[in-house]
Amino acid sequence: MALTVATWNVNGIRARQEQFLEWMGRDQPDVVCLQEIKAKPDQLPETVCNLDGYWCYWHGAGGYSGVSLQLRREAFPEEPRFSHPPFDLETRIVAAEAGDLVVASIYVPNGGKDFPAKMDFLRALARWAGELRAAGRRVVLAGDMNVTRTDRDVHPKERKPFVIGQRPEEREAFDAILAHGLVDVGRAQDPDNDNLFTWWAPWRNMRQRNIGWRIDYILASDPLAASASSCQVLAEVGTSDHAPVVARFEV
Fold this sequence. Notes:
This protein is an alpha+beta fold. The chain is about 20% helix and about 25% strand.
């Protein structure tokens, strides 16, 4: 059985609801994690909020931040349990539990306005990943992590020492998350690609020129990651400054 997991920072679901519905109708991923939805659930049309064929959870407070999860009912016949870890302070994380599987949609703070808060979030995320591993759960953490793992995850024209998103302490905090038995599926599936990016600044045709950063990830626990057969960036989908990332697992 194949399980497809997708993540996409939509940069405003209301602005991209038609693109979202078109993509979902075309690809029908089993799990969809959205970030930066910038909307309360009651601000969404019924066709988006309660997507046909999916268990849906929208976690937003208005025009800032916000995440959601959609799990396809055919793949998950029993309704999953949705929850938020204690460090979710700005509608930045929602998790779904289905059997021994925990999937989370995550939007890490950018850090431009409050860098210490970003570091606190990353450290809390690492502790939570450790708790899930200790409990024997299979884990998928997906979303906009707002950190480039290494310099190769930034186009050479965009590399700037100590700019937020590329700082050593952020990358160390990201590595601490991975240390809890998690695999960066995108890089594992495409280890030699120096042009693997998921975000492009919305000017000077950066996306068309593929001058970007890789800050959107699907992290999966070791046994699950070992079953991955692909992980693709869908750069042609939508008009957000981020592209969807979709991983396929043979489980």
